[in-house]
Amino acid sequence: MTVLRKALLVLGLPAVLFAVWWLASAGSTSFYFPPLSEIVAEFGETWTAERWRDDVLPSVARLGAGYAASCVAGVALGLLIGRVRWLFHATEPVLEFARAVPPPVLVPVIMLFAGIGDGMKVAVIVSGCLWPILLNTVAGVRSVEPVQLDTAAAYRLGRTRTLATVVLPGASPRIVTGMRQALAIGVILMVISEMFAAQSGLGFAIVQFQRSYAIPAMWSGILLLGCLGAALAALFTVFDRAVLHWYHRQRTEEA
Amino acid sequence: MSDDSPDALSGKRLHSPRPRSKGPRPRPVPPLLLGAAGVAAALLAGQLLPLTPLVNPRYFPTTGAVLAALADDLARAEFWRALGDTLVAWAAGLAIAVAAGAALGILIGSLPPVRAATASTIEFLRPIPSVALVPLAVLLFGTRLPSTLLLVVYAAFWQVLVQILAGVRDVDPVAADTAKSLRLTAWQRLTRLAWPTALPYLMTGVRLAATVALVLAVTAELVIGSPGLGHEIAVAQTSGAAERMYALILVAGALGVAVNLGVRALEREVLAWHPAVRGEAQW
């Protein structure tokens, strides 16, 4: 019974909304809002294995590469800046400014340097994803309990072990928060970098459909992009639960 | 025992770096000075790097050239019009998103069955990147302001909604029971209980939404070509005016900093009564 109720709660509204969209658009003759049945039919036709290979997977691969690079660089630099007091104070204003620049405006700049190839797109993704991870890591490192650091020092843990066993776990909730923000930015930049100058990619394909007035195909692309965003967010939640299970448990116990 | 060994009795922080010499530790440089030095170093690097063969000055003009272009821009009416367009799109989009997000959030949050039924839908819609709506915006509104607004509102709305939902859920159960036994009406419970509890969360949502709204406003202008700073950057790029492009990016960054500072100040103002600085809801 409870399983059924849960399933109903999770699937009920989406099913209703889908049905409403389906029925409301069934007889639609509007050029911009074609019937959902047409979009769904188009979905299968548009996103063939070939398109997945040529457009979707390269996009996701570039996102993965840029995101991974941002995570590694952001956490490494964040640990350094968070631990070294003078470096933190010296870099804080510059970093705050860098974070405040809306990342997509860097696309034209990066295009100047890196052309319009894969490297440019990965660089664009890094230029946006790095800052939330870096700044959250710095904040996390600086908010580690001083008592824990003192304890580590009293036990003469050494620099590396202190970093690995005290600082990194202490900062990890903030690091994960930064990584979550970065993922959302990364997806946006993946699409934008392909809208600017590209011959392939999800963003390129969707803009291409719109320019050629292939409206059902465009809608199917929007749906696919939405599903991709939702899937990545769901994956991240799994990652978050796995890495920070101790932290979430602590929080629910406190509450 | 050497003189740099940690000493609990002196109260010295045990993990602080040990002084290399036996003399007294030099007084630390004040953070403000260090920050200024960092900014100066960045500007200096920007001035000197293009003079070396490492980077092409056509791609990466000197700080001086960029600042000159910026001064040029500041004297032009078009620049101020573009800045105004961006600010209008940002403010209008943010206002719509906050009003809609807060109203819907309180409604959904205070009706448990509705909250349970909508949770999965919200979780699905929220991560949809708003740039996915670019083609739709172009078709519907062309290169006008509503195109920008569509993207800004979609992106900012979820930030507010999610925070408000977390805030309404955070109502102290004892306070809720007390309100019930005192026979507060639904309206009174809303205004006296749910609203004050959710307000800090709302402010967090507004802070996040304000940043996201600016990013999406500039992005929409850049990609779609609706009027504003982003469009000016695209124009500068296509006409090969690298100095102007960098100058406008600096302006966009300054705008971002101003938005951050402004929203933080607003947060402190509105939540002056709140006993604690609240953390962001974990979603």
What is the secondary structure topology, with strand pairs?
The complex is a heterodimer of chains A (255) and B (283).
Chain A: H1 2-24, H2 36-46, H3 49-83, H4 85-100, H5 106-114, H6 118-142, H7 146-154, H8 159-196, H9 202-211, H10 215-243, H11 245-254
Chain B: H1 31-48, H2 63-74, H3 77-110, H4 112-125, H5 134-141, H6 145-169, H7 173-181, H8 186-224, H9 229-238, H10 242-270
Give your account of this protein's structure.
The complex is a heterodimer of chains A (about 260) and B (about 280). Chain A is built from 11 helices and no strands. With about 260 residues, chain A is mainly alpha-helical. In chain A, helix 9 packs antiparallel against helix 10. With about 280 residues, chain B is mainly alpha-helical. Helix content of chain B is about 70%, strand content about 0%. Chain B is built from 10 helices and no strands. The radius of gyration of chain B is 25 Å and the shape is globular. The termini of chain B are far apart. The N terminus of chain B is likely disordered. Chains A and B meet through helix 1, helix 4, helix 5, helix 7 and helix 8 of A and helix 1, helix 4, helix 5, helix 8 and helix 9 of B.
